[in-house]
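Field reference: sequence -> structure
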Amino acid sequence: MFSNLAAIDLARAQFAFTISFHFIFPAFSIGLASYLAVLEGLWLWTGREVYINLFKYWLKIFAIAFAMGVVSGIVMSYQFGTNWAQFSDRAGPVIGPLMAYEVLTAFFLEAGFLGVMLFGMERVGRKLHFVATLAVAVGTAISAFWIIVVNSWMHTPQGYAINAQNQFVPLDWWAVIFNPSMPYRLVHTVLAAYLTTALVVGGVGAWHLLKGRRETAKGNDSHNTEGARVMFSMAMWMAALVAPVQIFAGDEHGLNTLKYQPAKVAAMEGNYRSHPNGAPLTLFGIPDDKAGVMRHAVEIPKVGSLILKHDLNAPLAGLDAVPRRDWPPVHIVFWTFRIMVAIGFAMLGLGLWSLLARWRRRLFDWPWLHRAAVLMGPSGFVAVLAGWATTESGRQPFTVFGLMRTADSLSPVSAPAIAASLTAFVIVYFVVFGIGTWFILQLMGHAPHPGETGVPQGGPTRTAGITPAPGQDPALSLNPAE
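Structure field:
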């Protein structure tokens, strides 16, 4: 089915496919690890059983998501050698050590404490277990830091030289790490991970609130909604407080991109031509790269310059100021950017709606709010994928922006070989990760309840509220009243 595509197109499609699967799991696990730390901290602080029940409920989901993220990440790394050997050879002296730092500082921390977090609640005591949970949460954040450093350097490279072998070699590691776009990209990505997790948690909580209402209407009061109420309330606080911060962070990131990658911003805005007296804001249109025009454009005059330069009449360069061979694919960048922005404002709207419901003391009694939260549950994943497509497609036709073209990064590999591996990836990924996602949805379909069990440990387990047996170490009890 890929027989008519060139090797470079297939290699790009394979990397895009595998990284799309990979990206959604860390985006979830980064936020979920922090959420688990908050839940366990609240349990230790307040002694409320509902928090440890929610902790155990989401811990099972975290374990599966984390495992799928690790597996999908391992597959991606091999492609640097199989499909992108020229890139690995030239950029390896910079990229290689950064990836090694991620393993040494983040992955080892996560792997070292993950077992304690998953299976050690009854073995190491509450405080040490909380330390393990914090270590895993910090490890996911550190991992995000190093990956964003690598990606950002490819967008805004600095602190390097080019040696006699035409390789990028580091001259100043501080300049490499803290390159111009890294802080903006890091904040934007981490906030996106937190919002993605909050919307999933809120969607699950809203689902069980709706389900509880239906059961009550049938005269069945067995559906426990205490956990659903707590996680829905926490998720809506996150949406209400973080969504506006994310919109501001995204705007700052856009201004940084305008400074260092103006062609990407021109593609995002759909500006094929320069506007010396103020650029419009193009809401919708049909990009035509061949003709270099935006067809059927719906525009608001001058607002584009106002947003990007805070001046209605500020000049704004278009793609006509960039050599045609350096244009990114406008149709991808233009539409994925709009999808991301639309979802961002939908998140803000959901958060404001929840604040109104909270103010009117109807947070748990507005079915339409709950239906909207269920509908928005997977939207964070769509937003992060759309944002990734925007920023990475906008960097094209370069792998290292302005310095190394994607066409020069490819391994000497044939199109049929890549097509075969891509076909295998498509089949295996949809089967394996489809089953994993189905299992996660099955876990989410059951409401958290008192006495929630954690990850199966292959032996007798105790649940919250059970008092230790005579002679048993009291530190192993999960009774929140102690």
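Note: DSSP finds 13 helices and six strands in the chain.
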